[in-house]
Amino acid sequence: MAWLSLFIAGLFETAWAIGLKYTEGFTRLWPSIFTILAMIASLLFLSRALRTIPVGTGYAVWTGIGAVGTAILGILLFSEPATFVRLACIGLIVAGIIGLMLVSP
Predict the structure, then answer these.
(1) 7: nearest Cα among 51, 74, 58
(2) Which of 9, 33, 35, 90 is 20–30 Å from 41 (CA)?
C-alpha cells in the first residue's frame, strides 16, 4: 500500500508541476486552486508512504516520478524537444526509480 501511495503522490507532483505553468504566476484563480490542491494531495500521499518506505528512497522515487511525468507532459503539451538524449535521460531516471523500488523494503 505504501508504494501505491508513493506512486499517487508522484502523479500529484506531476499535476502540480504542470499546473504551475497554467497559473501564470498564481494570477489565474482556477489553475491556482487546482495546483495548490495537487500540492497538498501530493504531500499527504508522500507522508503516508513514508510511514513505511525509508525517507531517502521515498523522496527519490517521488521526485523521480514527478520529474519523468513532468518531462513527458512537457513534450506532449508544450512541444518541448523530444531528442534522443533527452528521452534516454528520462529512461535513466525510470531505471533509477525501478532500481530503488527493487532494493527497498
Answers:
(1) 58
(2) 90
pTM of the predicted protein model: 0.92
> What are 92's three cell numbers?
535513466
For 45-65, the pLDDT digits (tens) are 999 999 999 999 999 999 999
Give, in order, the Cα–Cα distances in Å from 49 to each of 2, 7, 84, 95: 4, 9, 33, 20
Cβ count near 22 (within 10 Å)? 13
- Distance in angstroms (rounded) separating the CA atoms of residues 21 and 36: 13
Q: Cα separation of 65 and 43, whole Å?
A: 14
Contact in structure between 8 and 45 (CB atoms under 8 Å) = yes
Distance in angstroms (rounded) separating the CA atoms of residues 3 and 88: 25
Q: Is 27 exposed, middle or buried (0-12, 13-18, 19+ CB in 10 A)?
A: exposed
